[in-house]
Write a structure and sequence with these properties.
7 strands; disordered N terminus; alpha/beta
Length: 281
C-alpha cells in the first residue's frame, strides 16, 4: 500500500511538472533577478504603507532598484514616492489592484519583476469563545487570502519571464502556542504551509519562495500589545533576548531574501523572534 501511494504521489508530481512546462532533466537555471539590459531590477511591495514595508522600500531604492508599492495609506508612502517609487492605492484583497500593481512593476523592470514582498497583516488577540466567525474570517482573509492572491498573480507573471523571488510574512504565533492567538496562528500557519508547497510547485521554474516569521516588533500593528508598561514587560519576558524586534531587522532579512540570498534557498521560514520559538533560557 505504501509503495502504491508513493508511486501515485510521484505520478501526480510528474503531471504538475508537465503542466508547468518543464522537467528536472531539461530544466535550466534562469537568473531570478529579472533584469534585462540597462533596466533596474523591479520589486513590488504589497502592503506598502506598513512600517516594515517602508524600511524595505527605502533599502531597495538605495540599491538602485525600481520599487512599486500597493498601499491603502498612500500618505505614508510620500517620502518613497519623492524618491521615485511608484504608488498604487488599493487593498491587497482587490484582485484588479494587485494585477495593476504587478503590471506597473513589470513596466519598470523591462517586462519582468525581480521580486515581490507581501507585508499585509492584522492582529486579533482574543479567546475563541469571544471571537465571532466573521471576525475570524476577517483575519484569515486579510493575512492568508491576500497572500494567496499575491502569490497567484506574481507567479503567473514570473512564469512568463524566467522566474523571480517572493517573500511572505508569517509570525512566531504560527510555531509557538500563544494564549488567545488562535485566529492569527491559523492565518500565519496557512502562509507557512503555502510557502513550502508553492516553493515545491515552482522549484523547476526559477521561482524562489520564502517567509519571515517575526516575533513582537515595534510597529503600529503591535501598539495594542505595547500600550502599557506592564504588557510590554510581560511580552519581553517571553523573549530569550529580552527585547522586541525593530522594523529594520525584519526589512533587512526580507531585502536579503529578495536580492542576495543564494538560488538554492526556497521553501524556508526565517524565525526573527529573538529565540522565542526555539530557545529556552
Amino acid at each position: 500500500m505504501f509503495d502504491l501511494c508513493l508511486l501515485s504521489c510521484f505520478a501526480v508530481q510528474g503531471l504538475f511538472r508537465q503542466a508547468l512546462g518543464g522537467s528536472i532533466s531539461k530544466q535550466k537555471y534562469k537568473c531570478p533577478s529579472g533584469v534585462s539590459g540597462s533596466m533596474a531590477a523591479s520589486y513590488l511591495i504589497v502592503g506598502g504603507s506598513s512600517d516594515i514595508a517602508l524600511v524595505l522600500g527605502q533599502k531597495l531604492l538605495d540599491g538602485g532598484a525600481s520599487v512599486t508599492l500597493l498601499a491603502r495609506d498612500v500618505g505614508r508612502c510620500e517620502s518613497l514616492k519623492d524618491q521615485g517609487a511608484h504608488i498604487i492605492e488599493g487593498d491587497a484583497l482587490d484582485a484588479e489592484r494587485v494585477v495593476e500593481a504587478v503590471e506597473v512593476a513589470k513596466e519598470h523592470g523591462d517586462g519582468a519583476i525581480s521580486g515581490v514582498a507581501h507585508l499585509v497583516g492584522s492582529l486579533l488577540i482574543r479567546p475563541p469563545h469571544a471571537v465571532k466567525l466573521d471576525a475570524f474570517n476577517d483575519v484569515i482573509h486579510t493575512n492568508l487570502s491576500s497572500a494567496f492572491l499575491t502569490l497567484s498573480t506574481a507567479c503567473k507573471s514570473m512564469l512568463r519571464t524566467g522566474g523571480g523571488r517572493l517573500v511572505f510574512t508569517s509570525s512566531v504565533a504560527a510555531t509557538l502556542g500563544l494564549i488567545n492567538h488562535e485566529a492569527i496562528a491559523a492565518a500565519k500557519g496557512g502562509i507557512e504551509s503555502m510557502v513550502r508547497t508553492s516553493a515545491a510547485t515552482y522549484a523547476q521554474r526559477s521561482i524562489r519562495i520564502n517567509a519571515v516569521a517575526p516575533g513582537l516588533t515595534e510597529t503600529r500593528l503591535a501598539q495594542q500589545v505595547l500600550k502599557s508598561e506592564a504588557m510590554t514587560e510581560a511580552a519581553v519576558g517571553m523573549i530569550p533576548l529580552r527585547r522586541i524586534n525593530q522594523p529594520e531587522e525584519i526589512a533587512s532579512t526580507m531585502h536579503w531574501l529578495l536580492c542576495d540570498a543564494p538560488d538554492n534557498l526556497t521553501g524556508q521560514v526565517f524565525h526573527l523572534d529573538g529565540g522565542m520559538a526555539k530557545v529556552r533560557v
